[in-house]
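The instructor's notes for this session suggest beginning with a concrete chain rather than abstract definitions. Hand out the sequence below and ask the class to guess, before any prediction is shown, which regions might be ordered.
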Amino acid sequence: MNHTRTRTDSRRGRIAAREDEREQRRTRLRLFLARADRGVLSPEDCTALRGDVEAEVAESDTHRRSAGGQQAAAMRLHRRIAAAEQCLVETETERDQYATEAEALRQQLGEQHAVEEGRR
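After discussion, reveal the predicted structure:
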C-alpha cells in the first residue's frame, strides 16, 4: 500500500488545481464572449457557457459565504478582546484600591504600635 501523497492530495495541490480549473473556465468564458460578440455561438458553446457561468457563480457564492463567516469570527474575537481589556482595567483599578487600603492599614497599625510603645 502506497502512502505517499501526490501534489493533488495536498492542500496546496488542491488549491492549485482549483485555480487552474478557474483559469481554464475564465479563458473559455472570454472565448465564448468573443464568439457572442461576433454572433457565432454554437448550441454546444451556449451549453458550455451556461455551465461555466454557473460554476463561477457557485464558486463566488462559496467564497462570499466564507468571507462572511471569517468577518463574523473576527468581530467575535474583537468583542472578546474588548471585554478582556475592560476586565483588566477593572482588575487594575481594584488592585490599586486594595493597595491604597493596605497602605492606610499599615499606617494605622504603625500609629497604634507607636502609641503602645509610648505607653511602655
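Then share the key points. The two ends are 94 Å apart (CA to CA). The mean pLDDT is 90.
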